[in-house]
Amino acid sequence: MDTSEFSRARRSVTVSVGESVRIMRELQELSQNALSELTGIPQSTISAIENDRVNLGVERAKVVARALRVHPAVLVFPGWDVARESAA
Question: Which structural domains are found in the chain, ordered by start?
Answer without folding.
Answer: 17-76 (1.10.260.40)
